[in-house]
Hints:
By secondary structure, this protein is of the alpha+beta class. It is built from three helices and six strands, in the order αβββββααβ. Helices cover 26% and strands 24% of the residues. It has a three-stranded antiparallel beta sheet, with helices on one face. It starts with a helix and ends in an 8-residue tail after the last strand.
Amino acid sequence: xxxxxxxxxxxxxxxxxxxxxxxxxxxxxxxxxxxxxxxxxxxxxxxxxxxxxxxxxxxxxxxxxxxxxxxxxxxxxxxxxxxxxxxxxxxxxxxxxxxxxxxxxxxxxxxxxxxxxxxxxxx
Length: 123
């Protein structure tokens, strides 16, 4: 897994959040018009920021998979655990959760950032 993670890092930026939307390495850019909210989710000690797709849109999977798994299987498993297939885990990126929330607020065209109780996240 470490080797695969290092290969991803060599590609450059793993996640980019800008006025076009959210881009993750190896996947298309998800436009802000495809996202209804970004949800802050905690699973044990892990914090994840999960863009939630608007009805009719499908977001890409962003996960380094240890063993070969079909993308559809991995996406379904991630969506069950986190609420969506596109999960930004600050502990595995070079930025903190607060920085991701700030970027969504700056570029997100009004997309709200909510916690699991659907309350606005205060960064």
